[in-house]
Design brief:
about 140 residues, 2 domains, 5 helices
């Protein structure tokens, strides 16, 4: 690649598009306030608002579908989805923590690690119980 090809690949337009791609993968900052991109403020603001609106629409669609499927109010469907996500997250954490505790190559088995495992396990159980109270459906079979 010669110097002119390299400069062409770093055009301002390409850099803006790379910034958008980076933000979509990890939207932890206000896109349009990115330092060095002040002249693209309105474009980045419009992009962020459009992407957030699309995400909100998908979430609302999921909530409505869950409400219909489980015969819940929309408010209860939101709670159900949140609890289901907590359940799956905590279940995964508990599995990993248990594997770490049982790993024979590790010598340190602190009381803290065991207490943390129990806390995560009971958080998963608590979330699952809340979901099951709301519906007879098996949340393991439901996609989150």
């Amino acid at each position: 690649m010669n110097q002119s090809d390299e400069n062409a690949s770093n055009t301002p337009r390409k850099l803006v598009e790379q910034l958008k791609t980076k933000w979509v993968k990890n939207p932890t900052w206000i896109l349009e306030n990115t330092e060095g991109y002040e002249s693209y403020y309105h474009e980045l603001l419009e992009y962020r608002l459009r992407i957030e609106a699309q995400a909100d629409a998908l979430l609302l669609k999921e909530q409505i579908e869950t409400a219909k499927t489980l015969d819940l109010t929309l408010e209860d469907a939101v709670v159900y989805i949140e609890e289901s996500e907590k359940y799956h997250s905590n279940k995964g954490k508990a599995k990993q923590m248990l594997a770490n505790l049982l790993d024979s190559s590790r010598n340190v088995k602190s009381v803290y690690e065991i207490e943390e495992f129990v806390d995560v396990l009971f958080a998963a159980i608590d979330s699952r119980t809340r979901c099951l109270k709301m519906s007879d459906a098996d949340i393991d079979e439901m996609e989150v």
